[in-house]
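I am still getting used to backbone structure tokens and would like to learn alongside you. Label the sequence line and the structure token line clearly, so we can match residues to local backbone shapes. Would you write everything just below, so we can both look at the same thing?
***
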Amino acid sequence: MNATEIIHSALTQGTTRFAFELLPPLKGDGMEGIFAAIDPLMEFDPAYVNVTFHREILKQTLRPDGTAERHAVRRRPGTVGISAAIQQRYGVKTVPHLICGGLSRYDIEDALIDMDFLGLHSVLALRGDKSHDEERFVPHPQGHAHAADLVRQIAAMNRGEFVDGQVEECHHSKFSVGVAGYPETHGEALSADEDLRRLKEKVDAGADYIVTQLFYDNACFFDFVARCRAIGIGVPIIPGIKPLATLRHLTLLPETFGCRIPDELQREVEAHADDKAAVRQIGTEWAIAQSRELKAAGVPVLHYYPMGKAENIIEIAKTVF
């Protein structure tokens, strides 16, 4: 089964499955840290595991003659290989992310072919962030400017249509395609309505389901789902949850992800600002409450963002699942 089939199976059975997302290790690190993070989470029977894809950064080094050389470096490479290793080791479906940023259509096609050969038949299609040296997102000259275009390329490949033309009597991939949604609106969107139109474009292009950006107010998620349904988006919508874990998260998470911290949560955290363990527990309990309400509402999957730390996710899963 691919991710879409797993999601629809949960909907049919009226169950809520557990899923989580991992960052590839920094270049030079092995898989030991990844496996150590996954091992304790396997008891909760994850529906699938997402593996993020990270853009290149431009690094400047000095040549022996004193001149400067700039070259692209990936700090967290290996998304496809890591996804295959996880799927092989644990027998759990993996969902590698694939982005537009820094990649040509030919690079994307090659990555998809590798995924297909490795038995990775689910992908989360994203535009990706701007490069660190860019003021705004700039697509590769031979790439895509929007996630909808990436979805179209994947859908075309499923039909046997490649970048340089259709291959007759070829093997057809069968990728399940997820995309990102933003309950509190993407930071670059001109308006909430414009953001929803962009999302519908991705679904119309062939996306099978939506995974949301993290949020801390379930009312935002329920309103987002209602607005999606009102404009004709009918695919499953999976809520994304990240437990707040530090005092710094009160400012860092809104700045980074455009999410709002509810006043009640902020007051509780600030009241325990000098107690790191208490702040972490407050964030965990808030995520548990979120998860229980979302599960009661019948969402098919709860998608967690550990961001490299699994301890609080384990506590949440033990309570909710």
Summary: Residues 15 and 300 are 6 Å apart (CA to CA). The domain at 3-320 is CATH 3.20.20.220 (TIM Barrel).
